[in-house]
Amino acid sequence: MTSAIQLAPILITLKLALVTTLVLLMIGTPLAWWLANTRTRYKTPIEALVALPLVLPPTVLGFYLLVAFSPNSFAGQLWAFFSDTPLTFSFAGLVIGSVIYSLPFVVQPLQASFENIGKPLQQAAATLGAKPIDIFFSIILPLSYRGFFVAITLGFAHTVGEFGVVLMIGGNIPGVTQVLSISIYDHVEALEYSAAHIYSAGLLLFSFIVLFIAYTANRKLNIRL
């Protein structure tokens, strides 16, 4: 029989992935638009910084985020001042860490989508008197829907599968920060392989479906993931 305790990691994981994806869209969309259109010499370093989580071990990123979010740090003290709660070992800390770790999975598809639209269409709209913000919402967004689909899919799925970053920042607090990947690790440590199989098989199936959908959209949009 499935208990509330067994469902808690799934619910926390889905909540974390949903909130993280929404925040990533708010941050990643303007950043991807800027990277797709800027000619500044700082573009390449910023692109490398955004893509850093792709190659950086999650435990390394999680360690430095743990230090940055500690109660003695500026960010930790500022958060505690306004919320009266610590940033480490909290759901808010998980969200911030997940946003940083999953940022390239949202920014890169959006940037490629924006770049594929090209300049002539935007320039034609500008000559007709359209303002930049009108061009973005009236032309760019409707033509970039596949890029947004890929970004949302990958951002959500990547957050669901996180382990190292969330473990370093959030620890393993049941009902608070214990996500599905950490719960699997706990069951394996306790030799509870049946529960680990159920969770792992679910994640395996979910990951395959997400990648299948993402690559199908990728072929239509011709975005390299």
What does this protein look like?
This protein has 225 residues and is mainly alpha-helical. The chain has one domain (4-221): MetI-like (MetI-like fold). It is 77% helix and 0% strand. The protein is built from eleven helices and no strands. α5 runs antiparallel to α9 and α10 (180-189) packs antiparallel against α11. The chain is globular. The N and C termini lie far apart (40 Å). Mean pLDDT is 85; it is low at 1-5.
Summary keywords:
225 residues; mainly alpha; MetI-like fold; 0% strand; globular; disordered N terminus
Q: Report the mean per-residue pLDDT as an integer.
A: 85
Tell me the structural class.
Answer: mainly alpha
- How many extended strands? 0
Which fold name is given in CATH as the topology?
MetI-like fold
Helix and strand element order: HHHHHHHHHHH
By DSSP (H or I, 4+ residues per run), the number of helices equals 11
End-to-end gap: 40 Å
**Fraction of residues in β-strands:** under 5%
Largest sheet geometry: none
Proportion in helices:
over 70%
User: Which residue ranges are poorly predicted, with pLDDT under 50 across at least 5 consecutive positions?
Assistant: 1-5
Label the overall shape. Answer: globular
The CATH homologous superfamily is named MetI-like
- CATH architectural arrangement: Orthogonal Bundle
Please state the CA-atom Rg, rounded to the nearest Å: 20 Å
